[in-house]
């Protein structure tokens, strides 16, 4: 499914073909590699990431949120929070960036056919998981129920509201959204993501769960899902660390003995449970 | 490990210069010991003559150059540098990008010149460290081009350590004091010359040009005995099998104790021959038309190492020291199948406050088996 990633060497030149403002601080860039052959050959697995380069400033790791079947562009949803991402936020259609990737290990989608799929995300953790939603919806008959659980700190932080509304109307699909702080006309739950698990309808014994978000949230969600009877080998999560080389070389993303960029970012629960949310790792 | 007796040659002391001259003659730039700013460092040699009689006394937080009363060439254990800077450069450009008037970006790799280097006086601990750096940078399917170009050009003349420093503990890690593999030539210094053995075809070719007599069995035995004596003269020790023990003591009170002494200066990681962390950074040209993307040695003791969009994974010295020690001695096993410590003792000598990792390990593993309750801060 994936092609050989562009190595630690120079990025490929890419052009911004569209920019969408998702929330006051979150935006989506749709990119296309300048070399048509490279764009045509580009493949990724949901859960993998690219290194995006802002001219003269530096690189950041950003998960790929577009549909893997979409061969015409590569989507990244980004929060403007640091030097590079604030610069990327100022780009417009036609501007140039560098791109290398895809890197890392994605979600185990090949192995979970027939299962109910439970997606638990927090904040911008929805971005590395949205390509899983696209993947499942394109192959609906191969999966059981789809449960999408998304939590945000504040109601204003929720992006892709229309998409959540649309997914909620699909058969065998449940959308549960929570905000720690609600807002005017907030139609969903006010509280924690884990409060919503009671409402989630799936068969724990034959479900697979994929999580991405703050580590404390993922640990709480894992405890809740495992207590409900989800087998530990069916629990996956995506980790985030400082990543500079993306090929397991620079050392910043080490999590115990794992290099998150190379061995992850998606891990099985048993691989990370010992150190997850342990301060200092 | 005995010095192999067949093929061993005897290089008279006054012919060491011929060996260096021979390497220079076939195109190697030779690197050897020199005293600089109060320490023995490895520097390019202008002439084939090596300095004699150097020695260095090392203690926690202390390094003093001295004189060897026997005026030997290699009666010093090591200096602050290993061979690491010669293969994994402290600073180097990786690629550059040019932007034209239309805003189009053009990327191109920047490759280092491939210079043929011969290093005279490589220690067994440094050879073990080089093997670990090779495992990291030349990993199957993901070779680091910059590292590989330098590594392929290296000619290594190893020497047996006859006079270990007080900070050395390579015998306990199994990495020294006698070089056993990974060299082109290995020398063991006796009173009147060297027992020389080749470890590669290139080394055999160089040795053959010197026209040396075979080393006698007495000379080989003297070299072997010297290695045994140097091992038993070491006073520090690093126990093996620390992986499970250290990872089960992540909340031990000793981490707080060492954090109160550690300055987080990063000296230990800079002198460590196996540390591989590096940061990547861009340097745009002043005219705005190009930018160079470089990597620089980084340290897990630095503020930015654990930086993650507005938070820090390791916000204090306790968690940074713990990351360094548990990576080096515990999780290194997961990555490379052995400990990341080769017993060179540099981190002990070059720590400005004299923190001794062998002492910290003893306190963590033997001082107390009790785990302190989780501090709770930040942990879910």
Explain this structure to me?
- The complex is a heterodimer of chains A (281) and B (380).
- The mean pLDDT of chain A is 93.
- Chain A has seven helices and 15 strands.
- By secondary structure, chain A is α/β, with parallel strands linked by helices.
- The two termini of chain A are 32 Å apart.
- The relative contact order of chain A is 0.14.
- The longest helix of chain A has 13 residues, at 215-227.
- Chain A has two domains: 12-103, Elongation Factor Tu (Ef-tu), domain 3 (Beta Barrel); 109-272, 3-Layer(aba) Sandwich (Rossmann fold), CATH 3.40.50.80.
- Chain B is an alpha+beta fold and 380 residues long.
- In chain B, strands 1-11-10-9-8-2-3 form a seven-stranded mixed β-sheet, with helices on both faces. In chain B, strands 7-6-13-12 form a four-stranded antiparallel β-sheet, with no helix packed on it. In chain B, strands 4-5 form a two-stranded antiparallel sheet.
- In chain B, helix 9 packs across helix 11.
- The radius of gyration of chain B is 23 Å and the shape is globular.
- Mean pLDDT of chain B is 93; it is low at 367-380.
- The chains are: A alpha/beta (281), B alpha+beta (380).
- At the A-B interface, strand 6, helix 5 and strand 14 of A face strand 6, strand 7, strand 12, strand 13 and strand 14 of B.
Descriptors:
A: 281 residues, alpha/beta, Elongation Factor Tu (Ef-tu), domain 3, Rossmann fold, 2 domains, seven-stranded mixed β-sheet, six-stranded antiparallel β-sheet, 15 strands, B: 380 residues, four-stranded antiparallel β-sheet
Distance between the termini of chain B: 50 Å
| Model regions low in confidence, pLDDT < 50 over at least 5 residues of chain A | none
Q: What is the approximate shape of chain A?
A: globular
Spatial sequence of strands, sheet with the most strands of chain A = 10-9-8-7-11-12-15
Radius of gyration of chain A: 18 Å
Mean pLDDT of chain A: 93
Distance between the termini of chain A: 32 Å
Query: How many separate domains make up the residues of chain B?
Result: 2
- Record the strand order, biggest sheet of chain B: 1-11-10-9-8-2-3
Cα shape of chain B: globular
Give the fraction of residues assigned to helices of chain A: 10-25%
Count of DSSP strands of chain A: 15
The largest contact between protein chains, plus residue counts on each side, is:
A-B, 49 and 57 residues
């Amino acid at each position: 499914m994936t092609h050989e990633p562009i190595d630690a060497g120079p990025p490929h030149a890419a052009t911004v073909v569209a920019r969408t403002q998702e929330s006051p601080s979150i935006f989506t860039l749709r990119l296309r590699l300048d070399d048509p052959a490279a764009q045509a050959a580009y493949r990724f697995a949901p859960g993998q990431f690219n290194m995006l380069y802002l001219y003269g400033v530096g690189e950041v790791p950003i998960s790929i949120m577009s549909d893997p079947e979409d061969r015409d562009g590569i989507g990244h949803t980004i929060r403007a929070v640091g030097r590079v991402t604030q610069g990327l936020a100022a780009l417009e259609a036609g501007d140039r960036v560098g791109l290398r990737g895809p890197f890392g290990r994605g979600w185990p989608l090949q192995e979970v056919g027939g299962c109910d799929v439970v997606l638990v995300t927090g904040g911008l953790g929805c971005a590395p998981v949205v390509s899983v939603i696209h993947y499942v919806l394109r192959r609906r008959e191969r999966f059981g129920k789809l449960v999408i659980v998304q939590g945000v700190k504040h109601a204003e932080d929720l992006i892709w509201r229309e998409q959540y509304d649309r997914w909620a109307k699909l058969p065998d699909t449940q959308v549960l959204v929570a905000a720690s702080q609600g807002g005017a006309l907030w139609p969903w739950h006010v509280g924690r993501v884990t409060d919503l698990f009671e409402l989630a309808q799936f068969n724990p014994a034959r479900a697979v769960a994929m999580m991405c978000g703050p580590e404390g949230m993922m640990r709480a969600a894992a405890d809740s899902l495992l207590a409900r009877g989800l087998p530990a080998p069916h629990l996956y999560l995506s980790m985030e660390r400082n990543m500079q080389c993306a090929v397991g070389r620079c050392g910043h993303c080490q999590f115990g003995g794992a290099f998150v960029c190379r061995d992850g970012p998606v891990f099985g629960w048993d691989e990370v449970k010992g150190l997850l949310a342990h301060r200092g790792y | 490990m005995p010095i192999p007796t067949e093929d061993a040659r005897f290089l008279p002391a006054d012919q060491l210069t011929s060996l260096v001259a021979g390497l220079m003659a076939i195109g190697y730039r030779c690197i050897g010991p020199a005293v600089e700013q109060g320490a023995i460092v490895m520097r390019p040699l202008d002439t084939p003559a090596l300095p004699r009689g150097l020695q260095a006394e090392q203690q926690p937080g202390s390094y003093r150059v001295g004189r060897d009363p026997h005026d030997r060439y290699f009666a010093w254990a090591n200096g602050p540098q290993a061979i690491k800077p010669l293969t994994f450069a402290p600073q180097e450009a990786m690629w550059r990008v040019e932007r034209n008037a239309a805003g189009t970006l053009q990327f191109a790799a920047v490759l280092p010149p491939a210079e043929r280097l011969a290093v005279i006086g490589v220690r067994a601990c440094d050879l073990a460290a080089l093997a670990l750096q090779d495992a990291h940078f030349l990993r199957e399917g993901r070779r680091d081009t910059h590292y590989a170009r330098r590594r392929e050009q290296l000619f290594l003349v190893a020497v047996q350590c006859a006079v270990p420093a007080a900070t050395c503990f390579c015998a306990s890690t199994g990495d020294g004091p006698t070089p056993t593999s990974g060299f082109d030539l290995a020398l063991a210094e006796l009173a009147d010359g060297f027992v020389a053995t080749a470890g590669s075809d290139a080394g055999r070719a160089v040795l053959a040009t010197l026209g040396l007599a075979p080393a006698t069995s007495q000379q080989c035995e003297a070299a072997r005995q010297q290695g045994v004596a140097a091992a038993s003269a070491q006073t520090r020790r690093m126990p093996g099998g620390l992986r499970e023990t250290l990872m089960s003591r992540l909340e031990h009170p000793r981490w707080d104790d060492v954090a109160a002494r550690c300055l987080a200066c990063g000296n230990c990681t800079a002198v460590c021959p196996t540390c591989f962390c590096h940061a990547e950074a861009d340097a745009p040209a002043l005219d705005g038309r190009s930018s160079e993307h470089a990597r620089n040695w980084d340290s897990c003791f630095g503020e930015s190492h654990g930086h993650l969009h507005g938070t820090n994974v390791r916000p204090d010295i306790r968690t940074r020291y713990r990351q360094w020690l548990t990576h080096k001695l515990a999780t290194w096993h997961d990555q490379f199948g052995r400990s990341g410590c080769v017993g060179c003792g540099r981190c002990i000598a070059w720590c400005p406050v004299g923190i001794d990792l062998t002492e910290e390990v003893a306190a963590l593993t033997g001082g107390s088996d009790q785990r302190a309750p989780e501090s709770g801060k930040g942990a879910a």
